[in-house]
Amino acid sequence: MTFKMEWYGEKVLEATNSVCAKVSKDIAEDVMEDAKRILSRKAKTKTEDGLLTQFSITDSKYKDGGSLVWCQGPGNWHEPYHASFVELGTPNKAGKRHGSVEAKPFMRPAASKNKRNAKRKFEQALDKL
Amino acid sequence: MNSLFQAVYNRFSSTTGSGFYNDVSGRMYLGHASQGATFPYCVYFSVTDGNDLDFSDEREDFLLQFNIFSQNNSSFEAGNLLESLKTMFDNCSLTVTGWRHLQFQRGNIYPNGDYTQVPPIQGYSVEYNVLLEKARS
Fold first, then answer.
1. Residue A66 is part of which domain span?
2. Along the 129 residues of chain A, how does pLDDT read in single tens digits?
3. Is the CB of residue B130 less than 8 Å from the CB of residue B62?
4. Which of A90, A112, A113 to mutate to test the interface with B (most CBs of B within 10 A)?
5. What are B54-85's pLDDT values in tens digits?
6. From A87, which residue of chain B is nearest by alpha-carbon distance?
7. Is A86 a domain residue?
8. Set of chain A residues whose Cβ sits within 8 Å of the Cβ of B34
9. Residue A118 within any structural domain of the chain
């Protein structure tokens, strides 16, 4: 009697990776849309509003892959660069009436809002495999 | 959420003679600092607030951010503020009215200075994950 075992592990892994890459891009798009929505609600100046056109998504170069959502990221570098100042806030400068930025976080709330959504999307996509 | 902000401020102001309160001379503001505030100072605010329900409990999952700023040619004061902030809030236990406090865990730290000023403004943004829980009414 002989036994024959066929191993499809590599094909399964390939299919899983391809699904994960597609889903992570979908999620990145959701995060980007939410970040834009949050920013447009919070933006009060023309400069802050201008950030709405400076979003982009790239593939992550990290080992585990995934997608990255940027505001004024690579290929979208603008002068003045101010996305991080809007996200984190800046100090009030002594003796100056202008120049300070109150923090108006838009990237982190968008990422946080999509955490559960991301988990559900991964589950649904992998269930279909 | 006011009770969390109040609890954070209560912890801050509970040790007036030493530590972080002393280092910023009591200047910790909610949301934003007044224009022309004296350095050094701290601003704290909520970045995100997620709500989570199950059959018996309700949880609030906050991301709090503390911005600390020092106007000084040396980065020593800003570094010192960062250390005393960590000492005060890392894994601290808060009394939040109406809630059980579960966690106050430090997350990311970002440098956040403005070197175009003279003397330069040196600062850090520090994130804390805060978890609160209460029985559902």
1. 26-123
2. 788 888 888 888 888 989 999 999 999 999 999 999 999 999 888 888 889 999 999 998 888 888 999 998 877 666 778 898 899 998 876 555 555 678 999 999 999 999 989 999 999 998 887
3. yes
4. A90
5. 888 889 999 999 999 999 999 999 999 999 99
6. B47
7. yes
8. 92
9. yes
Tell me if residue A59 falls in helix, strand or coil. strand
Among chain A residues, CA nearest to B51? A113
The position carrying tokens 């559960």 is A116
Q: Is residue A85 part of a domain?
A: yes
Q: Which residues pair with B132 in a beta bridge?
A: B60, B101
Domain boundaries, chain B: 2-135
Phi-psi region of B36 (alpha: psi -120 to 50; beta: other; left: phi over 0): left
The answer to whether residue B34 neighbours chain A at the CB level (below 8 Å) is yes
- Of A88, A94, A103, nearest to B36 by CB-CB distance is A94
Please give the Cα distance from B130 to B60 (Å, whole number).
Answer: 8
Which residues on B lie below 8 Å from A105 (Cβ)? 47-48, 65
State residue B74 phi and psi, 5-degree precision: -95, 145
**Token representation of residue A51:** 């950030």
What total number of domains does chain A contain?
1
User: Is A100 touching B (CB cutoff 8 A)?
Assistant: yes
Q: How many CB atoms lie within 10 A of CB B130?
A: 24
A6 falls within a domain? no
Residues 6+ apart with CB under 8 A from A54: A71, A72, A76, A78, A83
Residue in chain B nearest A84 by alpha carbon? B112
Instruction: Assess if CATH 3.30.2000.30 describes domain B2-135.
Output: yes
